[in-house]
Amino acid sequence: QVQLVESGGGLVQAGDSLRLSCAASGRTFSSYTMAWFRQAPGKDREFVAHITWGSGSSTYYADSVKGRFTISRDNAKNTVYLQMNSLKPEDTAVYYCAARLGGGAYAYWGQGTHVTVSS
Questions:
Q1: CA–CA distance, 35 with 55 (Å, rounded to integer)
Q2: Are 26 and 3 in contact (CB under 8 A)?
Q3: How do residues 93-115 score in pLDDT, each as one tens digit?
């Protein structure tokens, strides 16, 4: 079992940067694949990025954020980050942190943090 708490959201202008954090409880954080999803008003939740478990973790990004967003993790701090650069108004959404063991669906979700990008 793992509990996730996001932070770092806010109101920024287009072109600005923001870093989201997701703090996880539990002693096996390093065993989880961690991901960020987002849900814009009136739209379905969509995948943003993930980072696999282990010391040789790999990352994967949605095309819409590739080259602008970077996901990283600090297993010593039980924290995953999402560095968001060159933000656009279409990045406005509630951002959720998620975790899973192995493959399959993400079983654990945070409560979300709001990001608003003004033009």
A1: 16
A2: yes
A3: 999 999 998 788 999 999 999 99
